[in-house]
Amino acid sequence: MTAATEALAPSTLRRGASRSAARITLDVVFSAVLFVGTIVGVVALATLIWTIVDNGWARLAADPIAFLSNYVSRLPARSGIKAALVGSTYLMVLTALFCFPVGVGAAVYLEEFAPRNRVTNFVEANIANLAGVPSVVYGLLGLGIFVRFLQMGPSLLAGALTLAVMSLPVIIVAAREAIRAVPESIRLGAYALGATKWQAVRRQVLPAALPGTLTGTILALSRAIGETAPLLVIGLPVVIFTLPNDLRDPVSALPLLIFNWTSRPQAAFAEAAAAASIVLLALLLAMNAVAIFLRNRYTIRW
Amino acid sequence: MPEGRTHVKEDEERHETRIADALKARPVEDRAAAAAETVFRLDDVHVYYSRFLALRGVTLDVGKNEITAFIGPSGCGKSTLIRCLNRMNDLIPGARVEGKVEYHDQDLYGDGVDPVEVRRRIGMVFQKPNPFPKSIYENVAFGPRVIGMKPSSMDDLVEQSLRGAAVWDEVKDKLKQNALALSGGQQQRLCIARAIAVSPDVILMDEPCSALDPVSTARIEDLMDELKRDYTIVIVTHNMQQAARVSDRTAFFTAEAAEGTGDRTGLLVEYDRTDAIFTHPGDKRTEDYITGRFG
């Protein structure tokens, strides 16, 4: 029997023929480690959500209308989240209006128009770094520039601009990745028909990159809506009994309110904080659901 | 060993018969057509990618309403050359064209020539079908819109273009559907429809069938024969039977290593009527290539 026919004998297919017991064990152990890694994350999240729901559900379900439509009060039972909820919504919409066009514009410039030189590389590296800067630092930036230097005060405008500057690097990175994912053949196809660079970008590249860009933007905004530190630093109030009519009016925000309530001694305020957290979580989950929907529905499979 | 050599010989003979059949299958008047008006006149064209010389010393004329085929092994510069004809090479950083490329007696690389204007008149179909990720209708309407054409009816223009590319019957009921859902062959014909929608003068095809199955390839070849009545066509192909079947003139390119550096530079070996190239090539290198003896 030659070596070749021996290698093909049926016995070589049996378990343990070439794979030793140690290698099989290693396979099993490795899968188990990966599984545990996944479970830790899921369990932690589930515990967190359970704790919040367990503490806050009774408070929220008792009178949800009153909870959502009352202003804050000295008495925990009469306190509501109206100003914070409306404030968070306004902040979110304004932040999106500020940072989406600027972020997409920066991404288009960097990907399609910027010359490949040291300045561009420097800018690119710093945008990636900015995405990792702690949010409290953005708060200080907002305080220094928007609140003090530009004299906006602790207002809706200053808050939204601060959150926008904070979200910008993440949006730029997401938009650049979406633009880079559009195949070069699409640009060449447009040029070959007599399109100018701007026409190719505006009518082919941007629409094709839009789902990815929107997904990234929504995820960045859902991070911004949960931010407490920058809003705290620029001095947005918690106790407020009016809704903003003007960009220069002060607003509150849900995370600020939750932070304030959890630091009070009364147990009833802790419950209210948990109830407000449920509302904030629901908002976040809704935004992420929209992002996932956009990604699954509109992402192009080339 | 002797056995192996016989096989090679048989292969060669079969190969030659196929090319002969391809030539014979074509109408006689087609082959005997008189020399046409010149669309492109290339004189001593060199193309560089930064310092690398990709193609040297190409001189040839492309005739109106003819199909001109560029053939040759990989790396011989035939795709590089076709991209010079509509200034697609401008998009590659570092690419540089020397020598004269005249289009209807006008210097394509002269001062004040706008590559965007050039590409409106000289369309291009790429190796891999590249429909836009939009509806079939939008794919065809895109070109006319960006160049500011104001057709009396965009619907009619879209229909004409799709008919012209022999794909109308397959897509007429799904014009609003995404073009990426079409088969590869349909996508490529859509890309041809897209190219003719802007009423170009010339259509450049860079290996348009290399990603397609034989049936789709045959359809595109038939289509080219119809298109040449209205357009001048330049095609790059790896497939010699395809060149023999569809083209009026064939340019054979090869690549040679430069002395010292070892960089391979493409050059034009021979350019003649297609039947002449395939039946009695004037250069040994051409003969070796078309008979499959290329090493």
List the helices and strands and how they pair.
The complex is a heterodimer of chains A (302) and B (295).
Chain A: H1 3-7, H2 21-62, H3 64-69, H4 82-113, H5 118-130, H6 135-149, H7 156-180, H8 184-192, H9 197-225, H10 229-234, H11 254-262, H12 267-298
Chain B: H1 2-24, H2 28-31, E1 38-49, E2 52-63, E3 67-71, H3 78-84, E4 95-103, E5 106-107, H4 115-121, E6 122-125, H5 136-146, H6 154-164, H7 168-171, H8 184-196, E7 202-206, H9 214-227, E8 232-236, H10 240-246, E9 249-257, E10 264-273, H11 274-279, H12 284-290
Parallel strand pairs in B: 2-10, 3-8, 3-9, 6-7, 7-8
Antiparallel strand pairs in B: 1-2, 1-4, 4-5, 9-10
Helix pairs in contact in B: 1-10, 5-8, 6-8, 8-9
- Span between termini of chain A: 51 Å
Kindly report the CATH topology of the domain at 2-111 and 201-290 in chain B: Rossmann fold
Overall strand count of chain A? 0
* CATH architect. name of the largest domain in chain A: Orthogonal Bundle
Per CATH, the class of the domain at 2-111 and 201-290 in chain B reads Alpha Beta
Q: What sort of overall outline of chain A do the alpha carbons produce when their principal axes are compared?
A: flat
Major sheet summary line of chain A: none
Number of strands of chain B: 10
Residue windows where pLDDT falls under 50 for at least 5 positions of chain A: none
* Largest Cβ-defined interface: A-B, 21 and 27 residues
| Annotation field: number of helices of chain A | 12
H-E order of chain B? HHEEEHEEHEHHHHEHEHEEHH
Question: Helicity level of chain B, as a percent range?
Answer: 25-40%
> What is the mean pLDDT of chain A?
90
CATH architectural designation of the domain at 2-111 and 201-290 in chain B: 3-Layer(aba) Sandwich
How far apart the termini of chain B lie comes to: 18 Å
- The number of helical segments of chain B is 12
